[in-house]
Amino acid sequence: MLALSAAVLSLVRVPPSSCSAQSARRCSPARACQFDVNAALTDLNAAVAAEDYAEAARLKKLIDEAAPEAAGATTWPEAMPVWLLERLEQLGLRFPTPIQSAALRAPADAVLRAPTGSGKTVAFLCVLLARCEAELQRRSEATLRAVTSSTLTPTQAMEVLAPALTTHDGGGPAAGAAKDPFFGMRLRGAPPAIVLVPDGDALLAEQVAGTAYALLGGYARASRSWTPGASDSLFRYTGPKVLQP
Fold this sequence. Notes:
Blueprint: E1 2-4, E2 8-11, H1 21-26, H2 37-49, H3 53-66, H4 68-71, H5 82-90, H6 98-105, E3 110-112, H7 120-131, H8 133-147, H9 154-161, H10 183-188, E4 194-196, H11 202-215
Parallel strand pairs: 2-4
Antiparallel strand pairs: 1-2, 1-3
Helix pairs in contact: 2-3, 6-7, 7-11
C-alpha cells in the first residue's frame, strides 16, 4: 500500500498477484486466470530495451486487448521533470505500470493499493522527486558553487558534500562561514520529504534506498560489476547533482 501526502510518504507490503505474466498470457477465459498487466509491462520494457520490436508489438497488443484501462496510461506524464523521464528510460522503465500512472496523476493526498512487484517504490519516489524538483535543483546548484569555490580546501569541500562529516570545533568549510560549523548542513538543508517503512522491514528499507539512489544517478550492482557504456551509467545522468542518498 502506498500513501502520498505533501511531505510524508508511507510504504507497506501487499501480497503479490497469484498469476504470473507468463501464465496469464497462456490462460484461457475458461480458466478465469487474471491477466498480470504489471508483469506484461515489465516484459514490454525488456523487449524495447533489447530492441526486440516484434515481441514489443505483440506485448503491446496483448496489453491493449487484456487490460484496456492500463493501455491508455502506458506513458509517463509529460509534466514530469525531463531529467527524471530520461533516467527512467535509462533504467529500462520506458512504460509505467498502472500504479505508477495512478500515483503520478493522483491528487496531493491519496492512498493507492497494488500487489508486490507492481512498481510501488518507483511510483512514490517519482512523485516525491517531481514535487521536490525545484528544491533539489536549488540545493544542487548551491552545493556545486560551494564545492568549486577556490577558497575551499579538499577537507572543507568534503564537509559541504557530506554535512554529517562536519566537525564542531568552531572551524567552517568556507570563507565567511568560519564561525558556522553547520555550514555544510545549512547548505544542504533539512530533508524535503520523509519516507516511512514498517519497523523491522530492512529489505524494504534497502529497496527504497537503492531505488532512490538509482533514480538520482547512482550506479550500483549487486555483483559489484561495471559495464562500460551501460544505459544507466552515472555519466548519462542529467538531473540534480551531489544529491545521491
